[in-house]
C-alpha cells in the first residue's frame, strides 16, 4: 500500500511540476471587429465597382463557403455559389448594394460575423423592376495571411417587394 501511495504521490508531483502550455496571445477583439467591418466594406465596394460582378462576389468566398438565399436551396461551394450569382447577375436590371452595420469576432479571433442591410432590384413577375430591402448575416473565417474569407452568407427581405423607383 505504501508503495502505491508513493507512486501516486510521485505521479502527482510530476504532473504538477510539468511546464504549462504557453498561453495563446491575447486577441484585440475591437481591432478584429474593425477588420471585419473593413473586409465587408471592401467586398461591397469592389463589387459595386466591378465589371465582373460574379467574379468580384466570389473573390471573398472561402472554398467551403455557402450562401443561404431566400426561397432557394443552399448553394454550397464555389461552383454552386457561382451558378447562383450568375443567375442573379443575368436578370435584367439586377442590382444589389449592401452595407455592414455591426461586426463581432470570436474570443480567439478566428471567426467573426457581420450584420447589415441590403437593397436589391430584381424583375418582378410582370418583368418590371421591384425593390427589395433586407438584412444579412455573413460569417467570416480568419485566413493564415490575416485576411478574412466568407464561409456563410445569409440574407432575407424585410417585407414584400415594392415597385422600383
Protein model, in words:
- Strand 4 and strand 5 form a beta hairpin.
- The protein has a single domain, classed as Nuclear Transport Factor 2, Chain: A (Roll).
- 19% of the residues are buried.
- It contains four helices and seven strands.
- About 3% of the residues have low confidence.
- It has 165 residues and is an alpha+beta fold.
Which oligomeric form is depicted?
A: single chain
CATH topology: Nuclear Transport Factor 2, Chain: A
- Quickly name the level 1 CATH class: Alpha Beta
Kindly state the number of beta strands.
7
What is the gyration radius calculated from CA atoms? 24 Å
Shape label? elongated
Question: How is the secondary structure organized here?
Answer:
Elements: H1 2-16, H2 29-49, H3 53-58, E1 61-68, E2 75-76, H4 77-89, E3 95-105, E4 111-123, E5 129-142, E6 148-157, E7 162-163
Parallel strand pairs: 1-6
Antiparallel strand pairs: 1-2, 3-4, 4-5, 5-6, 5-7
Jot down its keywords.
7-stranded mixed β-sheet, 165 residues, 36% strand, 33% helix, Nuclear Transport Factor 2, Chain: A, alpha+beta
Amino acid at each position: 500500500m505504501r508503495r502505491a501511495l508513493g507512486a501516486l504521490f510521485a505521479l502527482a508531483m510530476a504532473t504538477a511540476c510539468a511546464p504549462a502550455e504557453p498561453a495563446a496571445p491575447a486577441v484585440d477583439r475591437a481591432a478584429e471587429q474593425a477588420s471585419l467591418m473593413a473586409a465587408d466594406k471592401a467586398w461591397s465596394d469592389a463589387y459595386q465597382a466591378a465589371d465582373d460582378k460574379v467574379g468580384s462576389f466570389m473573390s471573398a468566398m472561402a472554398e467551403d463557403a455557402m450562401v443561404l438565399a431566400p426561397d432557394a436551396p443552399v448553394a454550397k461551394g464555389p461552383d454552386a455559389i457561382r451558378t447562383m450569382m450568375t443567375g442573379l447577375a443575368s436578370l435584367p436590371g439586377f442590382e444589389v448594394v449592401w452595407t455592414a452595420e455591426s461586426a463581432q469576432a470570436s474570443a480567439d479571433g478566428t471567426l467573426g460575423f457581420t450584420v447589415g442591410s441590403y437593397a436589391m432590384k430584381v424583375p418582378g413577375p410582370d418583368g418590371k423592376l421591384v425593390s427589395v430591402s433586407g438584412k444579412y448575416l455573413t460569417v467570416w473565417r480568419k485566413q493564415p495571411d490575416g485576411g478574412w474569407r466568407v464561409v456563410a452568407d445569409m440574407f432575407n427581405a424585410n417585407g414584400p417587394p415594392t415597385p422600383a423607383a
